[in-house]
Design brief:
By secondary structure, the chain is an alpha/beta fold. It has a single domain (about 10-275), classed as 3-Layer(aba) Sandwich (Rossmann fold). The protein has helices at about 25-35, 55-70, 90-105, 125-130, 145, 165-180, 200-215, 225-230, 245-250, 255-270, 275-285, and strands at about 10-15, 40-45, 75-80, 110-115, 135-140, 150, 160, 185-190, 220. The strands form two sheets. A seven-stranded parallel sheet has the order 3-2-4-1-5-8-9, with helices on both faces. Helix 1 (about 25-35) packs across helix 2 (about 55-70) and helix 3 packs across helix 4 (about 125-130). The protein is globular and about 50 Å long. It starts with 10 loop residues before the first strand and ends with a helix.
Length: about 290
Amino acid sequence: MMQDLTASCVRVIVVANEKGGSGKSTVAIHVAVALMKAGNSVASIDLDSRQRSFTHYIDNRLTWSTQQGKTLPIPTHVCFDEDAEFSTAEDVRAARDEFNETLETLAENHRYIVVDTAGHNHLLTQFAHTKADTLITPLNDSFVDLDVLGSVDPQSLGIASISHYARTVENARRERQLQGKPDTDWIVLRNRLSMLTSRNKASVGAALRDLSQRLSFRYIEGLAERLIFREFYPRGLTALDELDESTLGSRPTMSHLSAQLEVQHLLRTLLEPNKAAELRGQADAA
């Protein structure tokens, strides 16, 4: 029988967005490593059985740490290998049972479980949303990516309607409510931010402020567009690792320090579990 994860000490953090290329795996590995460096036991799950970017990132980290003789924090990792069709009700039940059993097993020995998802609406991703105590949605800083949350009026650039992914999250929240679970703390992470001020950047920010009130999420101006995040991947490194010339092949820069501060800010934000309930209470009272 699946244990009540809410009643246990485990907190499930799901990184999800139905649009690919938003930086989900980069965010997931940084969150996992940051939590481990803060002294927490962490497990991770990769639900993207095709791309497996999160799994490859961790594999690269294992290989690099072995080659360099370094000890790097690495979460207990599970990758869902099969990309089933889920054509029958039995298939759906079997997939749900496997996912629940995996969570149950990991919850026995870990304080946090970080789940990375596919960049499309997949059955396992739907399951993950209903289990998410914290949901992080990385969003590239453009109206193209914003479209998964809300449609924009072409004249005013204001929000005209709620889009498909926002409704997916609403449905998952509703299911959690019916199960008597606390509301999901939804964080929209404004990702790959430009260093420059622009009209587009301001307009996207205004649209996100509007959506945050309608959909009860917190949005963070999080990770800037930095080349170092791409450079870390082949070695499985993160901005939070001890970076020196022997590790990087060159001396660390101010960009590395800035990236560390950004990720640390994200972690502090994650550890505010009561914020979502406050937001929803304010929205209900309005």
